[in-house]
Amino acid sequence: MTPPSQRKRVLSGMRSTGKLHLGNYVGALQNWVGMQDTYECFFFIADWHALTTDYGDTSHVKQNSIEVLLDWLAAGLDPDRCTMFIQSHVPQHAELHLLLSMITPLGWLERVPTYKEQQENISGKDLSTYGFLGYPLLMSADIMMYKGDFVPVGEDQVPHVELTREIARRFNQFYEFRGKAVFPEPQSLLTPEPKLPGTDGRKMSKSYGNTIMLTDPEPVVRQKLKTMVTDPARVRRTDPGNPDVCPVGDLHKIFSSRETMAKVDAGCRSAGIGCIECKGWAADSLVQILNPMQQRRKKYEDNPRLAWDILEAGSERARAVASGTMNEVRAAMKMSLEYEAPSSAQGAK
Ligand code: SF4
């Protein structure tokens, strides 16, 4: 455990998408839980980011934020060891976003890879909005606000951190606070992203309807596993299979013990086990991980006010840091909120 005074600061967020699935867990949440005693962690629920694609109907955003928080707490994020907050409760993020938008060349945003990709892939929504183009800039404001040393990201998010570094550099070129740069340039902290297929073998995603949710009760997990696709070459029970090309094999690699994995590997390749038996073992491994999470979640489900209070306390801590940063930003831009007597040159005019 790193002593608190020596910890580097980490900032990361998740959109308000509602209940989380195993893909969210292994792709981010599990890493966050492990960072709490090594870094000074700020984790935020990005409800404004949810609006960049779902602006038409905002009726679920707040409840979705709570569901995300419940899953964070269930997974082991601890309010005594990290700060969890909600983006829209720290309005300084919007102010910094606006100020950064003044210095950000349009081309920098248009070339962010996810901009074009998502515009093409998300159908049925008009994404030709300023909010959608500007969401990587809002993300930069989120990161810069806390002067984070590191941003834990997967490979596909690295361009966003790069953009943040460029914007921080540009801001520091234009403005300084008491002779010093206001913003450090944050580093990407590449986190492991094990391949986690959904029940149909494609990447696990709510939009594919192939998820195993952190809140799925045991019978649902077992049922989902039963219908999960396997190595397509293993048609009959007597055909040998290959766990390296089987989505169930991928689940075992992430969640099962070494002993179980060894049994799967030998049994599958020799046709010594059937897929039903193998899926049962995978379900056992998942249930072992999900059960304690669901027990922790229940405490907050039974008393949602507890969870809300955690979010509010975290947002207050975040606002204190954000307020300090914005004081520096405004002063650096010669726009502080304090009274300043007119200079003699101005007074003479
Ligand atoms: S035995 Fe297991 S790893 Fe092998 S094909 Fe069947 S489900 Fe996949």
Low-confidence stretches: none
* Main sheet overview: 3 strands, parallel
Mean pLDDT: 92
Order of helices and strands: EHEHHEHHHHHEHEHHHHHH
Would you count the extended β strands for me?
5
**Small molecules held by this entry:** iron/sulfur cluster
Largest sheet, spatial ordering of strands? 1-2-3
Strand content: 5-15%
- SS-based structural class? mainly alpha
Bulk shape: elongated
N-C termini distance: 61 Å
Into which percent range does the helicity of residues fall?
A: 40-55%
Query: Helical region count?
Result: 15
User: Rg to the nearest angstrom?
Assistant: 24 Å
Q: What descriptors fit this protein?
A:
349 residues, mainly alpha, 3-stranded parallel sheet, 5 strands, elongated, binds iron/sulfur cluster
Describe this structure in words.
With 349 residues, this protein is mainly α. Helix content is 53%, strand content 7%. It has 15 helices and five strands. Helix 4 (92-103) runs parallel beside helix 14 and helix 11 crosses helix 13 (275-302). It is elongated and about 95 Å long. The protein binds iron/sulfur cluster (SF4).
